[in-house]
Amino acid sequence: MSPPGYRSSFAQWETRASVRSRPRRHPTAVLGPDQVFFPPELFPVLSAPALADLDPAARQSILQHALYQYLHFTTVLEQHAVLPVTSAISLGDVGIALPEAMRADAYKITTDEAWHAQFAYDFIAELHAETGVPSSALVRPRFVTDLARLREEVEPSLRRLADLLFTTVSETLVSQLLMDIPRDGRIPDPIREVVADHAMDEGRHQTYFRQFLRELWTQLGTAERRFAGPLIPRLVEIFLAPDLGSVEAILRQAGLAPTVVSTALRETYAAVPEGRLAAEARVTVRLFDEVGALDDHATRAAFTTAGLVPA
Ligand SMILES: [Fe+2]
Ligand SMILES: [Fe+2]
Question: What separation in Å is there between the alpha carbon of 201 and the centre of ligand 2?
């Protein structure tokens, strides 16, 4: 039974969670004539004029490495950022009072996320074994370094709150990749299925973290809210900004010359397309607005400056 005010989305967890109900997904090595490992539109550097003469084999190789890095990002996000927070919530160790049912559901989320990390990790290894192409261009996702830097700037007593907010941002900002890949007919079935399994669980997590945010925000003091509010746009940027180091590593492993790579990066990323961040973070921004975070002047200004809300 959920207490008043908390609606659990985990009542059917035993039969619906991917870890409890979905089979292992195993990659296949051979692509059909029109198939790709990863949607090229989601790896936009491929449209750079500097790469206009790329041969089809190099293009396919780049997309395979883009898939590897995407799966690696999933593993690292879960293990490094999300699991420590959901574990702490389950143990009642996050500095706020939560309904017992919310703590209980945090155990299920922790299990889900550990499974996502594991299946993403295993899928990389199996795809390597099937295709003979090692995941040689993997890099530590950029957000790890950016988050570590931000934590260093923050007073130690507020670091836990920064961690809670980063996980809340990432869990409410269900990625476009999770939505798009399962529907993309060019992607082989096992890849679509492994992403669909993840997306299905993340739908429940989003519902949970929407309610977690309400509990968290209600219980923050004025000083904590003044700290937390302006931090949110930075956390959204840390989560969403392109990982140029990874794109560079992927292009270099395809044998492209450093000058070609740097030109392609410049052509693709010199300007952030207007409204991109706001569109991708739309749901997360709305949730923070609904709890009243944007009522604070400095917080609204930070959201405006980051382009997340109109001026
Ligand atoms: Fe996940
Ligand atoms: Fe999640």
Answer: 7
